[in-house]
């Protein structure tokens, strides 16, 4: 349920309404996701033999290559640069709600949930998806 006293996303978390440090809005999130998935598809095609528009008789593991590369990009870059390449390009940063470092296990759990899609499209009044709530993170504007 939404807190009636809350007037903007992130207020309960002590985040500003707009500007740096405010909750990253849906447009930037979708742009970051598109950038990350496009990069993952290009990398999968270049190094893992994935062909976006080909329909081989036996696709095998290559049909999952972009999603695997996407997950690896998330897991590697979130703890090292504070977000995926797509996040950083569109001006977002993933942080812990309490301000601590995200660590190593949180990006893994968050990414596994993100790959299942449903946790990412169900979000609260602070615009935090279930994948972020599960690990205690929030995506903010850098």
UniProtKB/TrEMBL annotation:
Predominant place of localization: membrane
Annotated TM spans: 30-50, 62-84, 104-123
Endpoints of the signal sequence: none
Subcellular location per the Swiss-Prot or TrEMBL entry: Cell membrane
Membrane protein topology class: Multi-pass membrane protein
UniProt keywords, alphabetically: Cell membrane, Membrane, Transmembrane, Transmembrane helix
A single GO cellular-component term on record: plasma membrane
Domain RDD span(s) in chain numbering: 25-135
Matches recorded under Pfam families: RDD
PANTHER family noted in UniProt: PROLINE-RICH ANTIGEN HOMOLOG (PTHR36115:SF6), PROLINE-RICH ANTIGEN HOMOLOG-RELATED (PTHR36115)
Protein name per Swiss-Prot or TrEMBL: RDD family protein
Species annotation: Microbacterium azadirachtae
